[in-house]
Write the structure tokens for this entry.
Amino acid sequence: MHITLNGEEKITSSKNIEELLDEYNQKKAAIVVEVNLDIIAKNNYQSTPIKNGDKIEFIRFMGGG
């Protein structure tokens, strides 16, 4: 299916957020996921389906100063 991930068009076979994170080798503890402007709770990654046309953002917090 076609999604937009961090502003780029992508094709994925992942069925839910957890699979998508695994597909892109993202550590679940260090990331926040937004789907169509809604933040998804980490305990809902497996139960949140991905649909064709979804706009998904992987948000990472960075330290610095």
Remarks:
- The mean pLDDT is 95.
- The radius of gyration is 11 Å.
